[in-house]
Sequence to fold (224 residues):
Amino acid sequence: GDSVTQMEGPVTLSEEAFLTINCTYTATGYPSLFWYVQYPGEGLQLLLKATKADDKGSNKGFEATYRKETTSFHLEKGSVQVSDSAVYFCALEAGANSKLTFGKGITLSVRP
Amino acid sequence: DAGVIQSPRHEVTEMGQEVTLRCKPISGHDYLFWYRQTMMRGLELLIYFNNNVPIDDSGMPEDRFSAKMPNASFSTLKIQPSEPRDSAVYFCASGTGLGEAFFGQGTRLTVV
Fold:
């Protein structure tokens, strides 16, 4: 079945450090891929998405590129801020009329 | 639009009591989702509706859980009777397709 695997957490970084959060997926067909972010005490919100191979999603300084050859959608940011501290979820939609499948999420803490 | 609105934000109840969680989706969204989030199991999809009709309830843990959507602007998730293992954060989300979901702030349920 469809699945999303995220790297184990938590991750703790200093402000202005480079961030990479790994995400790989298993799916039939050509899924759409998403990163969601959950700030403390809030619901999830869409951070970025990519709907086909080689697409790059970007938002708020975060980027992720849909790599079909490695079935990956790693999240990157060049310089993290304290305000980026949150839980990050990778997700996929395996095709039209499919449900979102979420990874387990990873907690990012950024210290000043 | 005010976004997805859930009530109550926090609920503490005694084991055996009935609990009803409420959700108002974003106007115009055809899909409504109920999720449960716990530390142990992460984010789980319980049930989703399309145009007020339940489409997939395979994630509902057992018969104690039920969900309704009597109209396009309101949905409930009911647990009767509640048990301590039901303690979790319950999220409602809505969207125009299955891929992208807009989440409410969640209801934190504690069953003692």
Notes: Chain A has a mean pLDDT of 93. The first strand of chain A starts at residue 3 and ends at 6. Chain A is about 0% helix and 50% strand. The two ends of chain A are 41 Å apart (CA to CA).
